[in-house]
Request: fold
Amino acid sequence: IDAFKSGLNSFKALSVREENAKRIIEELNERRDTEVVIDPTLILPSETWDKIAKRPKGLDKKDKFKIYKHR
Reply:
């Protein structure tokens, strides 16, 4: 954990995507300048992602899939 704390101090700035991650960093370290920011993938509109995304072979545009996250 000491190496992790030291590593955090080596950055000029820190940003995370979740309030919980900010809390963890603040608990591990004396830094209080960590910012919570939006996930960069959410900045672009879905139409832009449709233009640049590469669909896996065999996946039709009408096909949908879901991603689940377990806590």
Strands lie at 15-16, 35-36.
